[in-house]
Amino acid sequence: MFDEPLDPAADRDGFVRRMMRIVWPAFLAAAVAETVFFTLFDPFELHLFGRPLEWSREAMYTLGFFGFWLLGITSSALTVFLERSAAEINRCPYPPSARPPGCPSNERCGDR
Amino acid sequence: MNDTAPTVDTQEVALYEIRRRIHPRAVHGTFAAWRWALVFATQAVFYGLPWLKWGDRPAVLFDLAARKFYIFGLVFWPQDAIYLTVLLILSALSLFLFTAVAGRLWCGYACPQTVYTEIFLWIEQKIEGDRLARIRLDAAPPSLKKFVTRALKHIAWLAVAVWTGYTFVGYFTPIRELGVRTITWQLGPWETFWILFYSFATYGNAGFMREQVCKYMCPYARFQSVMFDRDTLIITYDPQRGEPRGARARTADRQAQGIGDCVDCGICVQACPTGIDIRDGLQYECIGCAACIDGCDQVMDKMGYPRGLIRYTTERALSERLPSSSIVSHLVRPRTLVYGTLLLAIASVAAWSLATRNPLRVDVMRDRGALAREASPGVVENVYRIQVMNTDERARRYDVHAKGLPGIAVAGIDQPVAVDSAGTRLVPLRIAAPLEPAGAPALQPGTHKIELIVTATDDPTISRHEHTTFIVPR
Fold first, then answer.
1. Using one digit for the tens of pLDDT, what is the confidence trace for B226-276?
2. Does A13 reside within a domain?
3. What's the mean per-residue pLDDT of chain B?
């Protein structure tokens, strides 16, 4: 059930797909958040610690977008991270070929 | 993995399926022609719109810096966000309707991911050659020729990508100004950033990610099946006609050989941009591009068999062997009626609301600093600021009145208030009311409801009544 991929290319593609699942939903959520937030609030009306922000609207929109995106990425990444099964977390991180001879894992974990 | 590996292991490994680079075989035919027509149509709109002019301004401009959207004769403000919401609802409903009728039309013909992939594939084919040549080039050892070919392709891709990024930013900054500033090297940092960001996204998605966007990133690909029913047109292989599949000579009698119409040439698989075999049935990876139909029809023509071994048909028509006329008769059904009616109703309401939109908006704000005071003996004054927004294409002047208390009057402004076309003006003003008006009871201390009326001087129907309060101090 938690056999490691036999091929490093499969490992890499699995990683790439995991990254897609983190970055892309966050991007979509950021686009929605950006639209809703800046429709309701004019950047010129925002204050930071009681002082008006003196940046251009373009700067605020851009920073706002990446702020929302980063927030979404954090959330997606945590989801993906917590989604791993106990078996995946507990398994020996080395493929059988990389384990030193006499490694106790080989007896305990068999081929895992 | 050893021979005795349980099946779960095989599935687990399959989860990490290696992505094989897909080189779709170019096909010609009805549906390829439709796709190209839509590539041209959508891109003519996308690349062309920012250059169109409306009077002395761009016809379509999302002026984020000024928080105003211009769309031909209409000017939208943040307060008009409801129209954006309505537009999104209409888009979603259209997508539902199209999907219920004919599957993933959007994906196959109009989605930017499909359109730009199609453009990038065309460039790839022109520079690197056809499918086989590209597979050979992939496998070839590094050489100067390979490097030059690849470099040329990436330069061409980048050119399209940068132009796309430039056009994208041209929706937010007038594109002609953007051009002038690019030439004179005066682009702002944010514009530069977004041009590069969008270019990079186009280059990456259309050049490298391709079908992975549809397979792993697109939510619509995952939920489109809920809009499907037995009468939805889908791209289907006809197994009753095709099976058992097998190679044969062109002159062979397939009935004598006991084989179906599928010659198992694999062209439907080679043509598929997502790399699936449509003969395995409906799959979520199928973006409905119909390239397999075009490919198969070409083969059927060569074999002298009737076209349509792979075709647009419905589940019902296929299983019940119904003629194509029955597909049309099943077009109107509760699902399509509900989507269609909702679409029409919301669109009509939105159109009516846009057509009768009041081009004047007024926000009244009480001055928080100075609530109320007795300006002169027997006269109370409250201070306000009003924001007058003229969403019209022409400059207007407005009269400001107050009512709700005897003898109430607006003071401290020059009447009428002039506001530019698509402009806003913040006007401070005072409203005064006598404490003991003639012929009316004296004003009680406390809060009174009053009304501010702003009316265009040239058109009394353009008017806003805003409620606010008037405070009489003790």
1. 888 899 999 999 999 988 888 888 888 888 888 899 999 999 999 999 999
2. yes
3. 88
Residue-wise pLDDT tens digits, B191-200: 999 999 999 9
For chain B, say whether A61 makes contact (Cβ under 8 Å). Answer: yes
Report yes or no on B99 lying in a domain: no
Please check whether residue A27 lies inside any domain of the structure. Answer: yes
Tell me which chain B residues have a C-beta less than 8 angstroms from the C-beta of A6: 1, 13
Q: What is the 3-state secondary structure (H, E, C) of B314-352?
A: EHHHHHCCCCHHHHHHCCCCHHHHHHHHHHHHHHHHHHH
Taking the Cβ of residue A5 and every Cβ of chain B, the question of whether any pair is shorter than 8 Å is answered with yes
CB contact under 8 A, A62 and B193: yes
Give chain B's length.
Answer: 474
In a domain? residue B176: yes
Number of domains in chain A: 1
Number of CB pairs, chain A paired with chain B, less than 8 A apart: 62
- What the block records as the tokens of B326 is 């029955």
The domain tally of chain B equals 2
Report how far residue B9's alpha carbon sits from residue B146's, in angstroms, rounded to the nearest whole number: 39
For B62-108, the pLDDT digits (tens) are 998 888 899 988 888 888 888 989 999 999 999 999 999 999 999 99
Rounded Cα gap, residues B219 and B191, in angstroms: 30
Of B219, B251, B267, the last residue of a domain is B219
Picking from B78, B188, B216, the nearest residue to A58 by CB comes out as B188
